[in-house]
Design brief:
Length: 184
């Protein structure tokens, strides 16, 4: 079977479009295994249908609670990502731009990290000055991935001001849908 250079390039491009989540990954910090208390307060309802309310309660890497109550009335982008994922890192400049442009209009981002260790997420967030909430999933990565239907990253869930799910495939058209959701 003969594979053309164009086919090889296309296959390589497709494989870089998202990163597969290692469902058997075990989170560690400085070589120590983490227990479920690391992600205390993590409540995700699973993968809702479009138009259904999405209720969540999460603890950020700064120890703050972020939930539907704390983000009441905001349009929320839930960003499933990891620092080890090249396409995820490529999204960061666009997300920073959107956040700066629309944050005062009521736009929030909550990053759910599939990183293998907490230090990677903290270091990356600080070095790249990520202004939005970051949640480290730790050893709950597999359960969160299965519950939400997220099998590869980056993946976005966009919630309207009532926290109803608008899209799970909005990566490409985020700039187009945000103004309508924000009323700007």
């Amino acid at each position: 079977m003969k594979i053309s250079v164009a086919s090889t390039v296309l296959l390589a491009a497709l494989s870089l479009a998202s990163c597969r989540i290692d469902s058997d990954a075990v989170a560690t910090v400085d070589g120590e295994y983490l227990d479920a208390s690391t992600a205390a307060g993590l409540v995700l309802p699973g993968q809702p249908e479009l138009g259904e309310a999405y209720d969540f309660s999460l603890k950020t890497i700064k120890g703050e609670e972020v939930s539907c109550d704390t983000l009441a009335g905001k349009v929320v982008l839930i960003d499933f990502w990891a620092t080890w994922c090249p396409p995820c890192r490529e999204e960061i400049p666009k997300l920073k731009e959107l956040y700066a442009k629309h944050h005062d209009d009521g736009f929030e981002i909550v990053g759910l990290s599939f990183d293998r260790n907490l230090n990677s997420l903290v270091t990356y967030s600080n070095e790249h000055e990520l202004p939005w909430h970051q949640v480290y999933l730790g050893e709950l990565q597999k359960q969160v991935g299965q519950a939400t239907g997220v099998t590869s990253i980056p993946r976005f869930f966009v919630l309207d001001r009532d926290h109803k799910l608008v899209t799970t495939t909005g990566r490409k058209n985020l700039e187009a849908i945000l103004p309508g959701l924000l009323g700007v």
